[in-house]
Specification:
The protein is of the alpha+beta class. Helices cover 33% and strands 20% of the residues. It has one domain (3-224): 3-Layer(aba) Sandwich (pa0076 fold), CATH 3.40.1730.10. It has an eight-stranded mixed beta sheet. Strand 1 and strand 2 (16-18) form a beta hairpin.
Length: 225
């Protein structure tokens, strides 16, 4: 499972892309293009200030959103060499594994990937060095996705904590509530609080401005239809 990237960096005058398939990039790019356009209309003169200080969001995509496999990744505001604003995305396929379980299990992987991602903002950024360092990143921990009917079957299970007992249920329950869902998480720098957004598919373009907010959400979590 390699980690790839797509988007803009300040050292290049156009999009950069490595190790991501077309079936991920095309719907992802279309969603971002539309979302950025809508958020510009909504925020007007405030858009650039909001965009430049927007947080790095970690995400998990269920199968059926960008191809038939699940994805984990990060989204960060960025800009190209001639001043065109567009985010930089890191993403890795986790196949048919549970996106929700991986979102919960891969905290350290997200932190390591974020540490690499923000180096794209450095003055001395080198795209090839960046690519090589991404290749050295260990894959995220994952779990198989169990059908909800099997997970709900009456049986006795043992686990070392409640998370271990409930984890098999959560992906199926999320799918039942949302269909293919995406999860978005943000850690605030000034407090230990975290924000969570859950969307049916990708977040609606009309709600993309939420991801530009350094406060994340009004509370600890928000769901988007």
């Amino acid at each position: 499972m390699s980690i790839g990237f797509f988007g803009k960096v300040h050292t290049h005058g156009d999009f950069v892309q490595r190790d991501l398939p077309r079936h991920f990039v095309e719907p992802w790019d279309a969603w971002l293009q539309q979302s950025i356009a809508v958020s510009r209309e909504q925020l007007g003169d405030d858009w650039l200030d909001r965009y430049l200080v927007s947080p790095v969001w970690r995400f998990a995509l269920a199968p059926g959103i960008c191809g038939e496999e699940a994805w984990l990744g990060l989204l960060m505001p960025s800009v190209d060499r001639v001043g065109r604003y567009f985010p930089l995305t890191l993403a890795t396929s986790i196949g048919d594994r549970s996106a929700m379980a991986a979102f919960l299990l891969a905290d350290e992987w997200y932190r390591q990937a974020a540490s690499l991602l923000v180096t794209a903002l450095d003055d001395g950024f080198d795209l090839e060095v960046f690519h090589d360092r991404l290749r050295q990143l260990s894959p995220p921990p994952t779990e198989h996705r169990e059908p909800l009917a099997d997970a709900l079957a009456l049986r006795r299970q043992a686990a070392t904590d409640w998370r271990g007992l409930l984890m098999p249920l959560l992906p199926g329950l999320l799918d039942r509530a949302y269909g293919p869902a995406s999860l978005w998480g943000m850690e605030r720098m000034d407090t230990p609080e975290r924000s969570l957004v859950i969307a049916r598919g990708l977040p609606p373009p009309g709600d993309f401005s939420l991801l530009l907010d350094t406060q994340g959400t009004d509370g600890r979590w928000k769901h988007l239809h």
